[in-house]
Amino acid sequence: MMKAIKLERPGGLDRLRIVDLGDPGQPGPGQIRVRIHASSLNFHDYGVVSGRMPTQDGRVPMSDGAGIVEAIGKGVDEFRTGDHVVSCFFPQWSDGPPPVADFAGTPGDGIDGFACEVAVRAAGAFTKAPAGYSHAEAATLTTAGLTAWRALIVNGGLKAGDTVLTLGTGGVSIFAAQLAVAMGAEVIATSSSDEKLARLRDMGVAHTINYRTDTEWGASVQALTQGRGVDHVIEVGGPGTLPQSIKACRIGGHISLIGVLTGASGEVPTAAMMSRQQRLQGLIVGSRAMQMDFIRALESTGIRPVIDCSFPLDQIAEAFRHEESGAHFGKIVLTM
To answer: What average pLDDT is seen over the chain?
Structure first.
C-alpha cells in the first residue's frame, strides 16, 4: 500500500483526502517506477483542487513530481536504478512544436498526478534532475521553472544586455528573474510588497516597482529604460495587467502571456500593441526536450530555486491555503 491524496468532486480544499492505495507494482516495458519525494504547488494545481478547473472524481492532484528511480522496465536505457528524476508537465510532448491545447495528458489534471508515494509511468514522462539538486528543488522545475525558460530563452531569444520585466514574486516570475540575471540581462520587477521587492534587489534585480502605490507602472518602466521600454515581459496577470505591460514593452518587443491571475478574459488595447508592433505569445510550460536543455543550463549557471516553505503531504490543504494568502516568495513544496 502507499499513501496518496485524492480530490473529491466538486473540488475545494476541504475535499482533499489522504487515502491508502494499492502499490502500482513493477514497471512494464518502456516504464520506470519512481519513489516520489517532493512536489511543488502551482496556480494550475490550485485551479484543479479548488474546483475551478473540474476534473475526474478521485483524481490524485499535483503536476510536479521528483524522486528516485526504483525499477526499470524492459527497453528503457535512459535511466538507471537510483537516478534522481523530475516529471514532465506534458508527457506526450517530447520535442518540436506544441501538439496539445488542453490538459488531458497533464498529471494532476487529465491523469493522476504526484501527490503519492510511488508512480509507475512511461520513461518519457520524466527527465533526470539537475546534479546536486534536492528533491524539493527539482520538484519546482516541471511547471514554473520550465515556463520561465521557454518564455525567455526558447521563445524570447534572451541575450546579454536585454531588459526583462517580471510581475510579482510567484515561481515563474522569480525563475525568470534568476535566469535573466544569470544571462547578463537587466531585470525590472514589480510587487505589492516592499519587503519582497527588497529581496528581489538582493537577488540582483536592478529596479523594483510597487504596483500598489504606482498604478501607472508601465510609464515608470519606460522612464527606467530612457523611454525605450523592455525587451521582454513575463506577463502573469492577464487582462488586468496587460495594458500596463504593453506600455512597458519596447517597440517590437516580446510579451509572454503566461498567467491569468486577474481573470480569464478582458479588454486588450490591441491598437496600442499593434502600433508598437509587439509580439504577444501565449504559452503553457514546454516540451521534454526543452526541460532537458533547461536542466543543463541550471547545472551550468548554478541557479538554485527559491523555496518559500515546505509542508508534508498530509498537510496539502494547508499548503494551498498558504498559496491563497499570497504571502509566499517563490515556491511552496510538498514532501513525501
So the answer is: 96
Taking residues 64-90, report their average pLDDT.
Answer: 98
pTM: 0.96
Helix (H) or strand (E) holding 335: strand 331-335
pLDDT at 262: 66
DSSP string, 15-55: GEEEEEE----S--TTEEEEEEEEEE--HHHHHHHTTSS--
Joined together, the cell numbers standing for residue 318 give: 494547508
Alpha-carbon distance values, 24 to 3, 28, 119, 334 (Å): 12, 11, 7, 21
Burial class from Cβ neighbours inside 10 Å (0-12, 13-18, 19+) for residue 336 reads buried
With residues binned 3-state (H G I as helix, E B as strand, rest as coil), the percentages for the chain, rounded to 5, are 30, 25, 45
Alpha carbons 153 and 283: distance in angstroms, whole number? 13
Convert 165-180 to b/e letters by CB count within 10 Å (16 or more is b). bbbbbbbbbbbbbbbb
What one-character-per-residue DSSP string does 279-296 give? EEEE--S--HHHHHHHHH
46 burial type by CB count under 10 A (0-12 exposed, 13-18 middle, 19+ buried): middle
Asked whether the beta carbons of 204 and 181 are under 8 A apart, the reply is yes
Contacting residues for 232 by C-beta, under 8 A, at least 6 apart? 151, 152, 156, 158, 162, 163, 164, 165, 180, 185, 249, 253, 254, 255, 256
Are the C-beta atoms of residues 307 and 316 closer than 8 Å to each other?
no
Q: Cβ contacts of residue 3 below 8 Å, gap of 6+?
A: 18, 19, 20, 21, 116, 117, 313, 314, 336
pLDDT tens-digit series, residues 5-18: 999 999 999 999 99
Confidence of residue 238 (pLDDT cuts 50, 70, 90): confident
**332 φ/ψ angles, rounded to the nearest 5 degrees:** -105, 135
- What CA–CA distances, in Å, run from 133 to 171, 287, 302? 17, 21, 10
Q: Which residue has the cell 514497471?
A: 27
